[in-house]
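In this section we walk through a basic example: taking a raw amino acid sequence and producing a predicted 3D structure, encoded as discrete structure tokens. The instruction is simple. Fold the sequence below.
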Amino acid sequence: MPIKLPPEAIEPFTRAWRHRELIRAVARREFLSRFRGSALGPAWAVLAPLIMMVAYTAVFSITVPQLAGGKSVTEYASGIFVGLIIFNLFSELAYRAPMLLHEHVNFVKKIDLSQRNHRLDRHDPRFHLWRDRIRRVFGLSVCHGRRAAATLLFAPLLFAPFALFILGIVWFFMALGAFTRDVAHIMASIVPILMFATPVFYSMDQVPSRYAIWLRFNIVGDYIDMLRAIALDGVLPNPFGYLLLVAASYATFLFGYQFFMRYKSVIVDVI
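The resulting token sequence is shown next.
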């Protein structure tokens, strides 16, 4: 007997599928417009994280050599680069989410929010997600070697649930930020702290067990660990751990979507 999913579980996907051509076109335009007018163009998608990687590696390998865990500078730098790919995608969207509706308040006022779920536009959070996701995947292409070439094919299966997780976060904070701008200030304070509670500059193996259990609640760190394993070590993630991560990401996705849809009718009046 086939399993029948509730409509709420597949509604976001059916809407995205109906507007797939529009999503593809606008995502491409958003990606290209980010680099319009620059001499190097899309090359900045790789250069920007590389510059950050060099800076962080120089600082932490000199001031806190224990973080390298006995790895060479090249191995440590590659690990930081992968960590930055994941965390920068999360942080950039988490920063912007609370103010997205305020940034486009004139547009929102013109269109009844109750009708916006039937169409997509360039200000939909999905477009910001796809634009930045393209940049991170493009950046990832410079960090893998021959040993990880085969397992790197697993990367899309890792980025897919991560995209759902971030969409849930964006929908939630976008709706919450419509009611109070304090959310934007809170995120500006929390995200930098969260960077050091995420294994960007270290690995979870280096964290004492009494603290590691608490850091596991930050699933961004799990994505970093899994991406490092497949991109640098050529090791596939544990199937059980991967399925747990997918379930947690999907639950976050549905929660954020339903939270936004629940309050969408009053958002126009409060922004």
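Looking at the output, two observations stand out. The chain has a mean pLDDT of 76. The CA atoms of residues 109 and 268 lie 6 Å apart. In the next section we compare this with other chains.
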